[in-house]
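Suppose a colleague, Dr. K., hands you the sequence of a protein chain of 215 amino acids and asks what its three-dimensional shape might be. Before reaching for any lab equipment, you can write down a predicted structure in token form. Begin with the sequence itself:
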Amino acid sequence: MIRHKAVYRGGSGEIVEKKSRFIANIKSVETVEEAQVYIEEMKKKYWDARHNCSAFSVGTEQVTTRCSDDGEPSGTAGKPILEVISGSGIHNIVVVVTRYFGGTLLGTGGLVRAYTDATRAGIENSDIVEKIPGRRVDIAMDYTDLGKLQYMLAQNEVLTEDTEYTDKVIIHALFPESDKEKLKKKITEATSGRVMTQEGEEVYFGTVDGEVIVF
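The predicted structure, expressed as tokens, is then:
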């Protein structure tokens, strides 16, 4: 599990260049097969377009990438789309940019710029999340330690899913794997060993518009 960016909710973006329309559609995928299925879906949806160019990046450690110019001059469509994906740091993503020809040739430079700009517009209109590898950790305490713990967690920017209030308080927190031991030590030291932590499952987590998301 490695820290990386991913598409939480795909979007679309459109630009117009010399009357040619370029429409980018973005989707999260986990496999090459899913990416290929989505590309075919977009080709069927925009069946009347001149080109449906595409690129995808699948995987987080062993990454598979492919791109297609779909009839545009070699290197003017698929490669620019893929370069935007690579530069964004987003993994497990497929982008299809549809072109409706406007009657004016754009030239090599114009095509590269248009496919690049359309892809960026699509990504900007998508919800992108940074997926952090970590663990669910339950922190059980007496009410007298709650304020101190909440302050400490906030100071360390620890995300929480929810809090149970019964005879004790249990905070269901999300610890980044890289900081897990350090945070557990801080809790022990801050409460002189009174507060217990229990590790749960490994997860990816992040935030989208302030909402905590667990994958």
